[in-house]
């Protein structure tokens, strides 16, 4: 919005002077955030997602606000929430679904909130913030960022009456604060004294024909796993819709579905399915890589190894390696050894064909350069950069951490022994 970058501010104004100016504005109460610059980026399905890019000054103040607000609300957040929270990650959410699914929670409400970040009601969100924050200056800053407005790509300024723009440092925390209403509602029976507070109470409840459930949420993506019947899940879907309505949110009719784990469903890039272990009569909940991220990786590789591409081979290999390392590190905890092998073969062939076309090589030239003295193929190497081999990534199981995930703001207690921890599942 103001055309200033961090590098320009450091050179033209000076970092210490800039920080002093911002601090003076905040103390005097004269700070006013500028509208965020809107950028539309493509998302799956051919649609576009709106990102709001704040100015450097606004990002600085948002980061300071986050440092103040995050410890306060982290003390209240339920353990079933994993997105944009310190020391928590998507793999914890997947591990929790896998654990509960293995212990009978096999009906799933696979929910999608329609345009969550764009439609959160400001009044409802501010009411949640006021429950824990009484400082009017802090509340004023939060509200000012919510109402800052948006400068569209066409140059028109639009008011922001609802939502918290994606792209801001503060937005994920504010979304978690709003959606904690849903977490608290569905996790209330799990608290001490609740109907699902202990394993015996949950067993008694199911013995009477009533369901037990567990929500697993990652930002605005969540599932509710249910130990019960489809009818119980349908009732929970209506209950969830009722809880979200005061926030200005609703479930997407097209994307929200009720599935059984034997049919499988996709969540956070993984495909989760309850199936029989080959060669046995035992059934387990497995996590695989979903089709969409595999196709997305292939598309990126195709774009980098296009026959018409005249990009520098060394830089192309560096970029390919970066993409594949990041992708494989995320998915290496799934059942994926065969997928890694197939993708390795795909990448190798794409790179070879691209290099053959670029340098007008013959197949005999390729064999002479890449087959070693022992008769085996050697890695593709360009100017000292070797193509990353996906098959070398170790496939490991991600261990469920449950309520033992530490908080960075509390004094760490000794790790509980197996004898002192009651099973949280049954």
UniProtKB/TrEMBL annotation:
CDD domains: RT_G2_intron
Listed name of the protein: RNA-directed DNA polymerase
Enzyme class: transferase
EC number annotated for this UniProt entry: 2.7.7.49
Span of domain Reverse transcriptase: 22-272
Pfam families in the record: GIIM, RVT_1
Domain of life, source organism: Bacteria
InterPro entries: DNA/RNA_pol_sf, Group_II_RT_mat, GrpII_Intron_Splice-Mob/Def, Mat_intron_G2, RT_dom
GO MF, any single term: RNA-directed DNA polymerase activity
Keywords, sorted A to Z: Nucleotidyltransferase, RNA-directed DNA polymerase, Transferase
Organism the protein comes from: Actinopolymorpha pittospori
């Amino acid at each position: 919005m103001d055309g200033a970058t961090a590098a320009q501010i450091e050179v033209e104004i000076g970092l210490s002077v800039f920080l002093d100016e911002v601090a003076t504005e905040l103390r005097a109460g004269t700070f006013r955030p500028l509208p965020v610059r809107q950028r539309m980026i493509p998302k799956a399905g051919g649609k576009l997602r709106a990102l709001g890019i704040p100015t450097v000054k606004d990002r600085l103040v948002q980061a300071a606000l986050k440092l103040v607000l995050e410890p306060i609300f982290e003390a209240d957040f339920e353990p079933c929430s994993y997105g944009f929270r310190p020391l928590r990650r998507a793999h914890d959410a997947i591990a929790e679904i896998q654990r509960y699914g293995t212990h009978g929670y096999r009906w799933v409400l696979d929910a999608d909130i329609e345009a969550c970040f764009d439609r959160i009601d400001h009044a409802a969100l501010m009411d949640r913030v006021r429950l824990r924050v009484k400082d009017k200056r802090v509340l004023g800053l939060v509200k000012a960022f919510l109402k800052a407005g948006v400068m569209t790509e066409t140059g028109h300024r639009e008011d922001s009456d609802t939502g918290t723009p994606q792209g801001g440092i503060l937005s994920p925390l504010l979304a978690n604060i709003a959606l904690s209403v849903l977490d608290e509602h569905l996790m209330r029976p799990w608290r001490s004294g609740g109907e699902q507070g202990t394993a015996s109470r949950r067993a008694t409840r199911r013995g009477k024909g009533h369901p037990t459930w567990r929500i697993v949420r990652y930002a605005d993506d969540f599932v509710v796993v249910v130990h019960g019947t489809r009818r119980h899940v349908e009732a929970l879907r209506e209950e969830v819709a009722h809880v979200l309505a005061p926030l200005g949110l609703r479930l997407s009719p097209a994307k929200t579905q009720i599935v059984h784990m034997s049919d499988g469903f996709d969540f956070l890039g993984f495909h989760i399915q309850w199936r029989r272990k080959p060669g046995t009569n035992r059934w387990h909940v497995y996590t695989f890589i979903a089709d969409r991220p595999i196709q997305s990786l292939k598309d990126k590789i195709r774009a980098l190894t296009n026959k018409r591409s005249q990009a520098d081979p060394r830089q192309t290999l560096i970029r390919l390696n970066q993409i594949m390392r990041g992708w494989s590190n995320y998915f290496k905890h799934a059942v994926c050894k065969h997928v890694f092998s197939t993708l390795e073969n795909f990448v190798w062939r794409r790179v070879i064909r691209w290099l053959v076309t670029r340098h007008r090589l013959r197949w005999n030239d390729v064999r002479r350069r890449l087959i070693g003295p022992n008769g085996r193929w050697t890695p593709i190497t360009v100017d000292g950069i070797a193509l990353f081999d996906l098959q070398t990534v170790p496939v490991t199981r991600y261990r469920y951490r449950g309520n033992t995930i530490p908080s960075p703001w509390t004094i760490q207690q000794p790790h509980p022994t197996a004898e002192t921890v009651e099973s949280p599942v049954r």
